[in-house]
Amino acid sequence: xxxxxxxxxxxxxxxxxxxxxxxxxxxxxxxxxxxxxxxxxxxxxxxxxxxxxxxxxxxxxxxxxxxxxxxxxxxxxxxxxxxxxxxxxxxxxxxxxxxxxxxxxxxxxxxxxxxxxxxxxxxxxxxxxxxxxxxxxxxxxxxxxxxxxxxxxxxxxxxxxxxxxxxxxxxxxxxxxxxxxxxxxxxxxxxxxxxxxxxxxxxxxxxxxxxxxxxxxxxxxxxxxxxxxxxxxxxxxxxxxxxxxxxxxxxxxxxxxxxxxxxxxxxxxxxxxxxxxxxxxxxxxxxxxxxxxxxxxxxxxxxxxxxxxxxxxxxxxxxxxxxxxxxxxxxxxxxxxxxxxxxxxxxxxxxxxxxxxxxxxxxxxxxxxxxxxxxxxxxxxxxxxxxxxxxxxxxxxxxxxxxxxxxxxxxxxxxxxxxxxxxxxxxxxxxxxxxxxxxxxxxxxxxxxxxxxxxxxxxxxxxxxxxxxxxxxxxxxxxxxxxxxxxxxxxxxxxxxxxxxxxxxxxxxxxxxxxxxxxxxxxxxxxxxxxxxxxxxxxxxxxxxxxxxxxxxxxxxxxxxxxxxxxxxxxxxxxxx
Length: 577
Description:
Blueprint: H1 2-35, E1 45-48, E2 58-64, E3 74-76, E4 86-90, H2 105-108, E5 113-119, E6 127-129, E7 133-136, E8 141-146, H3 164-174, H4 178-192, E9 201-206, E10 211-217, E11 233-239, E12 244-247, E13 264-266, H5 272-276, H6 290-294, H7 313-321, H8 348-355, E14 394-400, H9 406-409, E15 411-416, E16 425-428, H10 451-462, H11 466-480, H12 482-501, H13 503-535, E17 541-543, E18 548-550, H14 558-571
Antiparallel strand pairs: 1-2, 1-12, 2-14, 3-6, 4-5, 6-7, 8-9, 9-10, 10-11, 11-13, 14-15, 15-16, 17-18
């Protein structure tokens, strides 16, 4: 009788599983058709206004989810120049890397000189940069997300002198406020052209007082400086101080009002270019919308549901920050608000945790049902695009804080690799160096000298037995990340007291603190990776302190065993059933 019941269960389970497979396959094929002409989203930017944060910080993030890009970071000191000095402009690809045997990217990119030199400023700012410039000594901060544009706008020719990385470096060197940075980048792109390596891009540009969404796009492959027309089209909108916003690889600026300069800035061709190219008809009676005019038409039809969660990050962030609004995942992404007031003020730790979000408990939960396998691994089911992503080169969280001296007030927090298994480390705006382990590393060459490889080493050993190993990672984060976040207020005070005596002494103190902490975290992550390898070796459980071995402690869940057996029966030839 028990055997009959078992066979009946397996038969029913097999039919259900077959139905699910066919249903999911059908939906996946529809989604694949729908998304076939769209670029894969890679970078998530979260923005928090100063009155929306717990401590009055403006906060930005950037998840550099490339998967194959350079992950290294540098500190660039400020330099004094003589009148008449010139600044060379280079083409810098976000995506290009070089074999370590050839040298480091941030030395080799200078081989790609555009031929353009612009007048140098008398004194450039010190700043920290990775793929882009992220934080300078005046607390100007940046986060980036590719947003695409109309196909005809792309300009892959070398005629435009500026691509996005170069624009951000110049902004870091010259800007003292977010508005300065936007005007510098916009005017350079208009005069000398924007494109080549990049198309539509968004930057979150912040300072201690405000955050702006800056979006810039090329103007087609036929543009030349001799045309007398702007070499880019751009627009910027300010995030209200008590609001939060997000950019998940989709243009976010809608209707604009250039009569409100405290909230909008734009290139002179922001509307006329759309009219000339048929992207906007002023006779339609509809107000001009930047995102509706310049986004690829396909983007205007997307939402979280009709893409099986692939375009769910916009909805997910607003649902996390302001669940009381009850924004529906079925709402078209283009209809979502530019920004919202969060249900509660957010701390920097809250924002870090948001970057680790995996849509748990939602309809897009990647471990729902059998998606995550026997050990509930969210990386198995890659159809849903999560805020947390295993392709991340690094994630930055910037804080700009107006009540402190600039060198103390600015912080860029950096974590390497997938956010769920990486530790955020703070680097003040006023430090004079970054760890040597941050300046080396490559996807194709393993190196114990690279901080990034330490994070990947842990991540690799978490994957086979995620539900168990992630507990060990969280214990490490509670030891190495949480206490540092809590200690920042104390470090701020010590540094500010030193700054009053001597800015140089404050810089030395902060540099020592940041480098020592990064060294400690990197060492701890290498050790954690070793421990995970031993503890869960061969999917067994080795109790290291007790020197005990338990073979069955990590056996797969019974439901998964039944599912595997049902699948076997389903796939057996008919004559063997």
